[in-house]
Amino acid sequence: MRMSLKAQYAICGMFDLAYNGEGRPVQVRVVGERQRIPARYLEQIFQRLRRARLVRGKRGPGGGYVLARHPSEITLQDILEALEGPVAPRIAAGPPPRDRAPAERPAFLWPALGDRIADTLSDFDLERLCNEAAAGGVPRAHEDTRMWHI
Fold it and tell me: Which of 22, 104, 127, 135 lies most in the core, judged by the most C-beta atoms within 10 Å?
């Protein structure tokens, strides 16, 4: 299975909100800069994630996106399915047939493989990704919180 670039960007964006957002709204532009994703494309992805109720948007000054649920409640499967639909049935369909599938082709494999991939994706949640990133020494982005008085 090959994961689309859109799905990869969605996972990176959601990871960034979980790892760096600290529950505060983060602008798409900021996430895009940190993850090196074009902001216009990321905005389209986040709109889909918002419709799937994985993120919430806040307008105005101090606005941006925030996770709609705790990171432990959002899995990679949730993210992928918000963008591309159910994972298991897509894989269960198997590779596209040429003319007709030969009798030797293992048709029984595709549904089982789809279920295994969906199970694996549902085992990885954003909290687990954040914990692994922290253990691996991935630096967190911190806003400049210094106050300047004139």
Answer: 127
84 within 8 A of 11, measured Cβ to Cβ: no
pLDDT reported for residue 97 = 60
The answer to whether residues 124 and 76 touch, using CB atoms and an 8 Å cutoff, is yes
Model-level pTM? 0.80
- Gyration radius (Cα) of the chain, Å: 19
Calpha distance 14→102 (Å, rounded): 42
**pLDDT of 15-52, one tens digit each?**
999 999 988 999 999 999 999 999 999 999 999 999 99
The DSSP result for 62-129, as a single string, is T-EEEESS-GGG-BHHHHHHHHH--HHHHHHT-SPPSSS--TTS-TTHHHHHHHHHHHHHHH-BHHHH
Which residues, 6+ apart, have CB-to-CB distance to 30 below 8 Å?
Answer: 64
CA nearest to 70, candidates 54, 57, 59, 81: 54
Structural domains for the chain = 5-135 (1.10.10.10)
**Tens digit of each residue's pLDDT (9 = 90 or more) over 48-69:** 999 999 999 988 888 899 999 9
